[in-house]
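Open question from group meeting: does this chain pack into something compact, or does most of it stay loose? Before anyone orders reagents, we agreed to write out a predicted structure and look at it together. Recording both the input and the output here so the notebook holds the full record.
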Amino acid sequence: MEREGRTVVVVVFDGVRLLDVTGPLEVFTTANEHGADYRLRLVSPGGRDIIANGGVRLGADGALEDLRESPGILLVPGSPDVAATTADRPLLDQIRRLAAEAERVASVCAGAFALAAAGVLDGHRAATHWDLADRLAHEYPGVTVDGDAIFVTDGRIVTSAGISSGIDLALGLVEADHGADLARTVAKHLVVFMQRPGGQSQFSVRLTTQARRSATLQPVLDAVVLDPAGEHGLEAMAGRAGLSVRQFTRLFRRETGTTPARYVERARVEHAKNLLETGDEPLDVVGRRAGFGSPETMRRAFVRELSVPPATYRARFRTTGAGRRP
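Structure tokens returned:
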């Protein structure tokens, strides 16, 4: 593991989203309190103070264009005003220059647009906020956009999803430099979870399977998520909706785009994932608590949904996954 000190250069500019900046900085600062040696520098155009979104003023340590040190990590946060950022040619020129020299390049949320506009993401996989993923893919077809992942590592480039995921990204970078033990220590002191590896989805099954129009289905969907181990056979679910099995099945498919059985399985897998990430119970206990009839049933469901069995999934979630290549 790399343990020597490295410079983290954070590019700040007017309109930058405050948490995109302060979240990762707090991770690196806390890592320093536990033995790391990150030298943190905020640089802005002209070295002037900038006004972040919400009107908060941030001071800079120096001018972006005057920086001659090659960054260990170049971090580009995002802004709610994507168009203004991608139209700022001098800013993009400096990001391109520093990205070429940096050991690693990272972005938070809409910061991926600045990297893409500077040509840094061409030929790479990248993450951004789910609400911006289609736009990023449309405007920069040379970028392979993953609109679901918390963060994506592709070679020396690491890009993260929306806002708070900058904390996850920074924890991943700390782990890559200093190992999972230090990253877990940082997460614990910040009272955040280290159970959000880069490949984890930005969404829960409850958010991704909303009944589009029917108020009849939403309580049924919620009941499954709130009690995955409950009785959720077709007849039971149809009864809660006050419909025949045939009516219910047809309505469910039309309104959600999936089947009742698939939805229940996804909810149970999601609950089992949480149990595996946060506890040490045996797999058979996890399976029962999640509503699977046997460990083998849970194993098959995990392979269908995640392409890995539960034991492998648990092992992977002891780390942020920052060091794994796509």
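Observations to bring back to the group:
Confidence is low (pLDDT under 50) at residues 195-204, 322-326.
The chain is about 45% helix and 15% strand.
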